[in-house]
Amino acid sequence: MLNETKQKKLSSKSISSSKGHNLSPDAMAEIGLQTLVYVRPVQAREVAAEMGGQLSVSPDTWLYAVHAANGVRVAVVDSRAAAFEGARAYGYEPQSVH
Questions:
Q1: Per-residue pLDDT reduced to its tens digit, 8-29
Q2: Same-domain pairing of 71 and 53
């Protein structure tokens, strides 16, 4: 359930159908931004360049990226369990993305 602040932020312009079932990607991200993160597996080679040499693993190593609801990657960790535990430790509800 959305709190009043988030409900006010969603204007009728954000809803793309008269039934109110289809929200724009921006509206969906705004809804979950404060509470949701998603976790997805990535190979080290996908994130190595952006990490500026901070990775000391093989490019074929599977890691787990944690993303805010708006798609911004906020962390990369070495296990799914660590991704979920870390997200919960910061008060977020992690969701798995395959």
A1: 333 333 333 344 456 676 766 5
A2: yes
Tokens of 44: 């080290």
Using CA atoms, how far apart are residues 69 and 32, in angstroms rounded to an integer? 6
Radius of gyration of the chain from its Cα atoms, rounded to whole angstroms: 16
Question: 20-54 pLDDT, tens per residue?
Answer: 456 676 766 566 567 889 999 999 998 888 887 77
Question: In total, how many domains does the chain have?
Answer: 2
Q: Does the pLDDT value for residue 91 go beyond 50? A: yes
Residues 6+ apart with CB under 8 A from 31: 2, 6, 10, 23, 69
27 neighbors 6 (Cβ within 8 angstroms): no
Assess contact for 43 and 59: CB atoms under 8 A: yes
Burial class (CB in 10 A: 0-12, 13-18, 19+), 48: middle
> 84 and 50 in one domain?
yes
